Amino acid sequence: MRKMLLPDHDFETFDLITPDFLKSIGKKYVLCDIDNTVVAYDEPLPDKKVADWVKSLTDAGMSLIFISNNDRQRVETFCESLDVPYIYKSGKPSRKTVKRALSFLGGTYGECCVIGDQLLTDVLTARLSGVTSIWVRTIKKVETPFFRFKNAIEKPFINYYFKHKKTEKQ
Ligand SMILES: [Mg+2]
Questions:
Q1: 1-17 pLDDT per residue, tens
Q2: Which among 68, 60, 99 has a CA at the least distance from the CA of 85?
Q3: How far, in Å, is the centroid of ligand 1 from the Cα of 69?
Q4: Residue 169 pLDDT > 60, yes or no?
Q5: Can you list the domains of the chain with their CATH numbers?
Q6: What is the distance in A from the centroid of ligand 1 to the CA of 2?
Q7: What spacing in Å lies between the alpha carbon of 170 and ligand 1's midpoint?
Q8: How far is the centre of ligand 1, averaged over its atoms, from the C-alpha of 106 (Å)?
Q9: What is the Å distance from ligand 1's center to 122 Cα?
Q10: Residue 109: which residues within 8 A CB-CB, separation 6 or more?
Q11: Which residues surround ligand 1, an ion (CB under 5 A)?
Q12: Pick the residue with more confidence: 90 or 169?
């Protein structure tokens, strides 16, 4: 059960996930969260960093799709200038989310990874579908009771992940 909430890889920020890294782990189909993964949850538009990252992936021949549980308006507004496909109200962590995204991209599970900041949605989505999970740090903490509760659940898993990771390196 613990493994279901532990990512395969972690990065401080999404833009450190380079095409070279993705190639090195055999990934070509990238399913990426929006809120608090590539921009703060209250930031409606992508900034240059996001646009540059998207371009670097597509230039390298990778297929990117944004998968967000947020509503249509948020996701459409965000993706409008990026020319990247998206799924709003994506239903993460359901397995159907990955299935839908991959059938849209025409990709395979083996070459797919899910990027996101939440263990209980993004990492679990990847795990339930048996695809690679890349976890990034939450950009801006959401201070609502629901998210505080979620963060409290995630904390021991994050601690375990880093402890285990360190042990592996020794
Ligand atoms: Mg998120």
A1: 678 999 999 999 999 99
A2: 68
A3: 9
A4: no
A5: 2-140 (3.40.50.1000)
A6: 20
A7: 31
A8: 24
A9: 7
A10: 98, 102, 129, 130, 131
A11: 33, 35-37, 117
A12: 90
Strand partners, 11: 136
Give pTM, 2 decimals: 0.94
30-51: average pLDDT: 97
Contacts of 155 (CB under 8 A, 6+ apart): none
Give the C-alpha separation, 115 to 139, whole Å. Answer: 13
Task: Give the CA distances from residue 167 to residues 22, 155, 157, in Å, rounded to whole numbers and listed in that order.
Answer: 24, 18, 15
Residues in contact with 72: Cβ distance below 8 Å, sequence separation at least 6, in sequence order: 88, 89
CA–centroid distance, residue 13 to ligand 1 (Å)? 12
Write the CB contacts of 29 (distance below 8 Å, at least 6 apart in sequence): 62, 63, 65, 101, 102, 105, 107, 108, 111, 112, 113
